[in-house]
Amino acid sequence: MTASPSVLEAVSWGVALCAVAAVGAAVRARPGLRRARLLLAGGGVAGSGGGPEALARLGDWGERLRRAGGARRELLCLPVGCAVALMGSSVLPVIAAALAVPLVRRWLVARHRRCERERCEAAVIDMCGTVAGELRAGRQPGEAMAGLTGAALGPGWPAVPAAARFGGDVPDALRQAALAPGAEGLNGVAACWRVAVDGGAGLAAGLERVAAALAAERDQREELSAQLTGTRSTAVMLALLPALALAMGSALGAGPLRVLLHTPAGLGCLALGGLLEAAGIAWTGRIVQAAERPGAG
Q1: Where would you find the membrane-spanning parts of this chain (predicted)?
Q2: 45, 57 in Cβ contact below 8 A?
């Protein structure tokens, strides 16, 4: 069964539009793309100098282009959809790829936020250990806190060393900084600071206990995540089995894409299979999230 010229033309236009969208996103992500293209084309190095300096600038622009491509990883769905559309002579894979772009983007953003949260939690633990070490060495609490930069502790952290340096309300600044995702441990630091100032208790010992509690909680969460790795791997493997079956069928010459994309029964099977696939992924995700929820054990 051959595809009509109108379908092939529509697929070609879809490929062209996807290519234009990908190039436009890369240009918007990095305005220096044109300059890098000139460098790669041998148009000379902008500015003065040559030789090693040109190679260094070329490497710098290459790194920027790599970061620009990594910032738009969800657009990789478009060329994959276009390739399947060309193999199956149908525009449906292009439409499905376009619909998958915001979903993949949402997943990538959620994963990035989770990584930022874990980085912030680790920074809180390191901060507690650093301040406790400074206090054990004989420094005053305000001096020990004022010397910390804490770039990974969220946007509200700069107010904490400023309050410590100029005699402000350090516990209140700590509680405000604790509003950032992953920085909830700063509430314990604020309580230790308040007790140490009002009651004369040892701040170093309190910070060490807070760091130990946060580290134990992080280790428990990492152990649980390691135990759930097998469940995630099984779910991913089962989700990829239909695509593997289609690839094997195409390699054997059975033409599964032609049946799925050009016959009523195939379209019905494709819709039903897609719904079941999405339901299975969502169900597995809910099971994993329920297991990871605090107090689930």
Answers
A1: 6-26, 78-104
A2: yes
Q: Beta-strand (E) ranges in the chain?
A: none
Q: Which of 254, 249, 255, 185 is nearest to 216 (CA)?
A: 185
Buried b (16+ CB within 10 A) or exposed e, 172-208: ebbbbbbebebbebbbbbbebbbebeeeeeebbebbb
Dist. CA 30–CA 55, nearest whole Å:
20
Residue 178 has pLDDT above 70, yes or no: yes
The contacts of residue 7 (CB under 8 Å, 6+ apart) are 89, 90, 91
Cα 155 to Cα 225: distance, rounded to the nearest angstrom: 28
Distances, alpha carbon 53 to alpha carbons 45, 46, 47, 60, 191, in Å: 9, 11, 10, 11, 53
* 175-179 long-range contacts, CB within 8 A, separation 24+: 177/153, 179/154
The structure tokens 């930069």 sit at: 149
Q: Cβ of 36: how many Cβ atoms within 10 Å?
A: 18
171, 195 in Cβ contact below 8 A? no
Residue with tokens 């290459």: 62
Predicted TM-score (pTM) of this structure: 0.66
d(CA 146, CA 254): 70
Half-sphere exposure in the Cβ direction for 221 (13 Å, CA): 15
Can you list the pairs that 60-64 forms with residues at least 24 positions away whose Cβ atoms lie under 8 Å? Answer: 61/32, 61/35, 61/36, 62/36, 64/30, 64/32, 64/36
DSSP 293: S
Core vs surface per residue 264-277: b (16+ CB within 10 A) or e: eeeeeebeeeeeee
For 41-92, what is each residue's pLDDT tens digit? 444 444 444 445 555 565 565 555 455 545 578 888 888 888 888 888 888 8
